[in-house]
Amino acid sequence: MCPEATAVCGRAGARPASSNQVCIRSILKGYYFMKKLIIASAALLAASSVSAAASAETFNGPFGGAQIGWNHDEAGSVGTSVGRVNPSNEHDAFIGGAFVGYDYKIAPKVVIGAEAGFIVGADDALSGAAAGSALVLDPKYSIDVSARAGYLVQENTLLYVRGGYSNVRANVRLTGASGSRSGKDNRDAWMLGGGVEHAITQNISARLEYRYSDLSEGRGSWDRHQMLLGATYRF
Fold first, then answer.
1. Tell me: the pLDDT tens digits for 107-139?
2. CA 89, 74, 67, 229 torsion: positive or negative?
3. What is the mean pLDDT of the chain?
């Protein structure tokens, strides 16, 4: 028998109630109390999650993204795997790629970070002549590893400079009366640049950046200029 049955039946003038009825009422009261407690707890957890997300710092932590842009190559006499060649002096091309990295806010307005990226070009081959042969110097892709340091001019706007290493893989082909020769070039370069990144939401930002790379390796002249527009997602 439920304890409440005895209490109810013991009241003066109270109409006797069966122990089963009292037990059912007790169970229902407990059920509704637990239901309210669960709903209140869920609401509190949801509010805590929103508060934590709102307090997360922009430009701090891991990120990944994609970028597109413009590439301008200026090449003179260049040493390659098939000998010294003389491509056309300038060539423009469309480029695109992806990147991943990590930022760390070392002070309220100062951010440092590291990044690795991959870029491919469309119709970016340089042409020219070498010793009476037609030349094609065709960059296939580039990879880069760099560090950046920036200053928050506003809470959601970062101005930064970048420096690091870039590696370009290229195919070289010479075609003349005596046949053709081809080879692959693996060129190392140092890279410098800078830009601005603006946080659109807590997790999404957009950036505009300029980069310069020297691909000559001390063998002639090959300068690369890039203007990149990127979209970043922060995890």
1. 999 999 999 999 999 988 888 776 677 888 899
2. negative
3. 81
